[in-house]
Amino acid sequence: MQATVTSDAVRMDRHYRYQRFIYDATRTHYLIGRKRLIDELRPSPGQRVLEIGCGTAWNLAKLAQRYPEAMLYGVDVSSAMLDTARASLERKGLSEHITLAQGDATCFDPEKAFARSDFDRVFFSYALSMIPGWLDALDHAARMIAPGGELHIVDFGQCGRLPKTFKTALFAFLDHYTVTPRENLEDCAQACALRHGLATDFRQLHRGYTDYCILRR
């Protein structure tokens, strides 16, 4: 497992060595659904929110501005992305509001990373489509949902109600960036929910461009 974690970190660092500097500016228009996720998380004051695969911490910065009394955490396998995230949060004056740690989505230890074992809100934002062991990451996240908590997922869908030419072009573009939309996300989320005693709410948005899922404890 350690060898896999190390290789994933190296792969992501190499992939985002330069992209990280323009990542947020170039992703705004096609990572559709992130603002909806921020709206729907709705953490109460003092509740703990964890983003798995936080990247540049764009989502966490928005959450800090929207929900200033929430406790925010982010984990990412790429040290390069975390360097960019920390610099971004420092510029925005948010460093003290958000705790970041390096770790693999499939197996990081939340106690070691953040000194806590569960969270009121856990979320993946366009991250499962980039994680090779995404099913393990989904299970790992489900274990960290606190009583009464939720796991939110927003990611690329299968574009079922969009022209085939659009889907073909989009998926070819995503493949260039090692992104693989998960065609069985709904079934796998439901199976995960069953294993962990969770309720599931799955939606296809924007004519199938976006998959949005919530698992509730």
SSE arrangement:
Blueprint: H1 2-15, H2 23-27, H3 34-41, E1 48-52, H4 58-66, E2 71-76, H5 79-91, E3 98-102, H6 110-114, E4 119-125, H7 134-143, E5 145-156, H8 164-176, H9 185-196, E6 199-205, E7 210-216
Parallel strand pairs: 1-2, 1-4, 2-3, 4-5
Antiparallel strand pairs: 5-7, 6-7
Helix pairs in contact: 7-9
Describe this structure in words.
This protein is an alpha/beta fold. 41% of the residues lie in helices and 23% in strands. It has a seven-stranded mixed beta sheet, with helices on both faces. α7 (134-143) links the parallel β4 (119-125) and β5. α7 (134-143) packs parallel to α9. It starts with a helix and ends with a strand.
In short:
The protein has 217 residues and is an alpha/beta fold. The chain has a single domain (2-216), classed as Vaccinia Virus protein VP39 (Rossmann fold).
Largest sheet, strands/sense/barrel = 7 strands, mixed
Taking all Cα atoms into account, the compactness measure Rg is 16 Å
Percent in strands: 15-25%
Quick one: CATH class? Answer: Alpha Beta
CATH architecture: 3-Layer(aba) Sandwich
Judging from the principal axes of the Cα atoms, what is the shape? globular
CATH level-four homologous superfamily name: Vaccinia Virus protein VP39
**Overall domain count:** 1
In which order are the strands of the major sheet placed?
A: 3-2-1-4-5-7-6
Remind me, CATH topology?
Answer: Rossmann fold
Distance linking N and C termini = 29 Å
Order of helices and strands: HHHEHEHEHEHEHHEE
Helix content: 40-55%
Alpha-beta content class: alpha/beta
SS element count, helices: 9
Overall mean pLDDT: 90
